[in-house]
Amino acid sequence: MPSAEGKENIAACAIIDPFQAPYEYVQRGDLIIGGMMSQLACLTDELHFSEQPKIKFVDQLITISKKYQNVLSLVFAVKVINENPQILPNISLGFHIYDSYENARITHQNTLNLLSATEKIISNFRCDSQKNLIAVIGGLKPDTSVHMATILGIYKMPQISSCVLAPAMNIQLQFPSFYRMVPNEVHQYKGIVHLLQYFQWIWVGIVASDNDNGERFMQTLIPMLSKHGICTAFKEKTPSVSNALENFSSLELIRAKSSVIVTHVKVLVACADTQTMTSLLWMTYYFSLLEDVTQMSMGKVWILTAEWDFSFETRLRGMDMQLFNGALSFAIHSNEVMGFTKFLQNLHPNSAKGDGFIRNFWQQAFNCLLSDSNEPMDNTDTCTGQEKLESLPGALFEMSMTSHSYSIYNAVQTIAHSLHTIFRPKNGVERNRFNHQNLQPWQLHPFLKNISFNNSAGDFVSFDENGELAGGFDIINWVTFPNHSFLRVTVGRINPQAVQGQEFTMNEEAITWHNIFNQVLPLAVCNDHCHPGYSRKKKEGLPFCCYDCALCPDGMISNQNDMNYCFKCQETQFPNKNRDQCISKILHFLSFSEPLGICLAVLALSFSLITALVLGVFTKHWDTPIVKANNRDLTCSLLISLFLCFLCSLLFIAKPHIVTCCLRQTTFGILFSFAVSCVLAKTITVVLAFMATKPGSRMRKWVGKTFTNSILLACSFIQTCICTVWLSTAPPFLEFDMYSMTEEIVVKCNEGSISMFYGVFGYLGFLASVSFAMAFQARKLPDSFNEAKFITFSMLVFCSVWLSFVPSYLSTKGKYMVAVEIFSILASSAGLLGCIFFPKCYIIIMRPDLNSKNQIIGRNQ
Length: 861
What we know:
This protein is α/β, with parallel strands linked by helices. The protein is built from 25 helices and 29 strands.
């Protein structure tokens, strides 16, 4: 209930009853521009149909002194036009401005006052004293604009509004005479989404007024946010201002609305119309009385729509503005207008005749009473009239033109340029059908729709096909200070006319965040980010912005925060340990530069050198009995084949190529077949030689070079044919194995035909088995004529190596598979070399006394 002081304020409202003495500002001219502004607001009870409608003030008039600049911008714009000889040189513009009081009944009343030539409203009546009203500018709110349009539309009177939210979805169809000096609100909604996405804010609160505009704001914005991956933590509707003033002193209501101010959500998006912001300011005021929640209410990022101009009503002049420090707001694009600041500096209560706004503004803004005021002067200073507007805090008045005032300034410029186009001679001929005395308002529409010009600030002004300003929005960062001053810093832009991809621009470095954030980008998430290496996992029963973090599976990564899914690296890459980056795989092959390759290469060369030395020893002692025994030519052929076998292992080292792939297995198969064929021929020679020594034996005809050479060539020819068929039908080829090893690409030789590969090894095993079987049968023949015992040991080593090769080869991968085959080649070849030739070399070098025919014959006997 109102206090005694409140009753006095109600009485004050009765004195300035707008229906008896409305606030107005009049300047005569040949053509009149009407204006409907809102500097004052009457708080009224809601109307009930149970009683007769009436105006009942529940509190004093609310004065928002900053909105007086809207009136002054219209006055200044008319002054600029009248002083410009290039525009309307023989016509003067005048204006008639009323205050709407943000009240439907008063708005209707004053709209009819604009249309009437007399103090008494007489509709549809024209008299000689008609004021020549040509267009109307107003209002700042959607509902005020609709109240005006319903009347002005009847007379096809052009109306240029600066309301940010359109009064209706199809405004041009419902009100063809209605224009907006504001870009389409869709661009603002898109700008909010772009802004939240830019800073990765996905957990936000929505605040709007509890009326049709607030409901439409939520219904439009929330689906857009959800579509772009942004969750609404809560949505709160603020009550009407009258309810706020009556009930916000109730602690229960404060706690009920605590989600708006005290919530832990860091980013709040507010539809910043008068009702919403006034309610928020009163809530903040009462919260400041509760010490336990004062600090919790700080440290939020407010994102405010273009209605916001950082204006407080005069009763809240002492309120702490730090709540909105670092706020980001959208604003109709504006520019500095030359001369406006000087125009304001020359303003004082007695400077302008016909200005019915300035007295109340001056008294409320400077918190004083003029000397001729009839109001009581208890505890109130007297105004001198010499107070300086620049001394007022920015929340009460600004010396630079605000975006709303800039829109009104552009509206006057638009009307003036349209009139200039009408009255301007065309091809040197005056347009006699138009003059300022008989010009009808509806005749202005074709020129308004097609208007395009650069205003005095250098900005291009035109309407789009919907009668809305073809332009964009600025993004403003508000920096507040303890002395109730603030800075307006333009940090971004929404420009629908820009090239694709550049419609949204942001200068993050120019932003000053709330002090509590210490210039660190605020986070607005339901929970901590899922860092790279993790993916989001939905929490049941909570919005999609609330999630757990799951480690990426093996072989998969995520390289950004909050990824929905992990993904696999390319075939040539593999995940790092943290699973947040793909690393290029290195080529995996047995190289001459690594220890294993070096060791195997040294072994191969060493055994090749040893073989060459053995061959040299045998050549030097070519005519000794031990060399002559058992076919010198076979011995020489075997040593040469073993020498080549050792060297062929080098084909398996280094990066494979198509040529080496074809030569590896075939060269190895043919050489080893030749070596084993030599061993087989030597074994058969030993057996036949022993049998040929028996009296009457017919085996002598088989003992000789022809037979042994036939065995050698026949066995080798079969292997050569197998390899030739292999290379002709399905030769080996170079292959890159991406999957066998996680971190490396295995460069290997694919054998082509696996059956041919095993055919080569199978035939080699067959020859080795036959040689081993025959040598084993002949192992007990007399030593002087017998190599079979050494051949038996050599073939036992050979077969053991290659039998163990098969499981080892199949159980390894990459270069180790190649190393196993090289080791098998070297081991088997070394077995043949050592077991067959070491004993003979020992006798030749260490025991030459045993290398004689007599010694051999003697031992035989």
